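Appendix B: complex inputs.
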Amino acid sequence: MGSTIIGADLFISGCTNEHTEQVQAVLTDAQISYLNEVGETILPKTVASDGAKAANVGAFMKIMVRDCYSPEEQKIFFEGLDALEQRCKKTLGKGFLSCSPGERQKLLIGLDAEVKDGKKRNDLLQQKEAERQKSSQAGGKPNYLKKTPPTPYFAMIKQLTLLGYFTSEIGYKSMGYVSVPGRYDGNVMKA
Amino acid sequence: MAENTYDAIVIGSGISGGWAAKELTGKGLKTLMLERGRNYEHIKDYKYGTKQPWEAEHRGSTTKEQQKTYPVIHRGWAANEAVMECWVNEQDSPYTEIKPFTWWRSYQLGGRSTLWGRQSYRWSDFDFEANAKEGWAIDWPIRYKDISPWYDYVEKFAGISGARDGLAHLPDGHFLPPVSMNIVEKDVASRLKKHYKDQRHLINGRVANLTEAIPGRTRCQFRDRCWEGCPFGGYFSTQSSTLPAAMDTGNLTVRPWSIVTRIIYDKDKKKATGVEILDAQTNQTYRYNAKIIFLNASTLNSAWVLMNSATDVWEGGLGSSSGELGHNIMDHHYNLGASGSIEGFEDHYIYGRRPTGFYIPRFTNLYGDKREFSRGFGYQGGASRDSWSREIAELNIGGEFKDTLSKPGNWNIGMTGFGEILPYHENKITLDAKRKDKWGLPILSMDAELKDNEKKMRSAITMEAANMLDVAGVKNIRTWDSGHAMGHGIHEMGTARMGLDPKTSVLNKHNQVWDALNVFVTDGACMTSSACVNPSLTYMALTARACDFAFNELKSGNL
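Resulting structure:
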């Protein structure tokens, strides 16, 4: 599994930032396959349409993490891959790739629920902070939010899966995308 | 004709520059169009517009590298992979912000005419008379009757689609059939009409997309990917429209990579004789001569050219004798509005992707309405169904989640307000004495901000938007206001205003620089007030009108 240790399989391509600490920035082929499996669990093939694996969301994630993520985000992402695998082993006694589809789904539902709970807590803190700032007696009291909390790794993986899927050719097709509609109809009644 | 000598020179190739080139060449004048950036050829250079959206490597996201190179563009919504190469390299061309200023620039052939929002509305005399009626700034030297035939003229050529709504304060134009509203918008429109007793109107957006083919151009195909470059030429741009017409005359020469550094002024003859350029690639300088010059480098850059010209005669540059050059900069303030959800239309879907939404014209300070601020605002908006990026409370992983996201979600409706900004003398641009751009040329320093009238107006914009949505039965209404730095409206204007008196204006009623009658400025720099409607159509009309005047003056020997 990929890790953040500086090693032979680590190379930073296309990254022109000047900071000296070497953080893994590029997914290996093994990590791409792994993420395709994770993605396929989030958005699996159904009767209606192909899934995230067929859309190769893993390959898309490689490009996005390499080119669009900051070094801090890359660190969270790669540590997150480890954390996911470790959580799987802890709760299901085996690695993600050894789990059945049902087991995989159960694991990810749990991780997703944690992200949603965390978001709820942050939203509440933001609301409290907004209310506190509104009332003018704000001087001296602590800020409930030290700074914008970092995105949790599973939120990153899920967001990239959704983005990678629904902006792929397969994803567009699943939404009934027509490349050149030729007209606009503002009231279509579907059968 | 001697080499380097033309009948006319056009500085800039955007919305108004392209029109100047078309009009002048169409009248038989040998014309040189100078563009400071690269050539950007219709269809051939549309890297993304000619491909499928899934072929974009980052599917629209910008890279870290681009975020570093283009920090100003990343302040807004226009930082998209498909258009990043069209935006100016901000590292090469910086500017100074005395107060926050967001300047969106495209330095390539066609300028922002390939990127623009294409909303096209006429001014009325409510707008032209406002300064005079309120005793604010100076009076426009023209009225609606002077420009109305030119609106007809440019609308016919450019191709503007819209409905004839019969509103005196938003005059109807020469229109192609309107882009239709959807079922939800129609419902909201009729509710508003009833509730406000026909005093407020939700109408079809008037847009420079073709709903019918016109000679030489193909109808819009409703892909809504306009700014990526349209292989059908379905909307107005220099590339699709004015440039081919100009090239067809055989009278046009286009020179890209040509930064005009100054207009050359003959102080004895009291006119310009030509321009000096710096080649942006080779750094060589060249001189071109012409009888007339059209300055269409975009509002702030047109002022910049004037500031750098004839400085031996006027320290502040050509057109500075009134003390108004660089002053009175305006924009439209926006980044605020309201939105909410609509119930009852779950079985109604949409086919196709429109290049416009609806428009709500100004209703404040008109027909008896009186506010604590003057002038007014309009709204651009639309109703649509949620797409895949929506939250679903009870689903989060799995097949049902995916299949649900693949189908359209709930209906929402939203609108964004665009408000008029008054001309204030103290809102200005100047040359920054200390900083230079990549070519060693002085850069601009921006010192402008929203003031009391605009701030009061902003409160009304969100309040009225929420009220209207509420009246229309919209639920979960929320208002938003992200604040507005000058320039963010992309409608910067006013730095070389037209007027009746050379002591208080830079240009006369024919867009001639008072101090050099053979120099015409017809881009946003010429504007004496800003109204609240998208200005490009007015720039087109003013340009065609000024070209006609310039040609007649040349013919009769006055220039």
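The helical segments of chain A are 29-42, 57-67, 71-92, 101-134, 153-166, 169-174.
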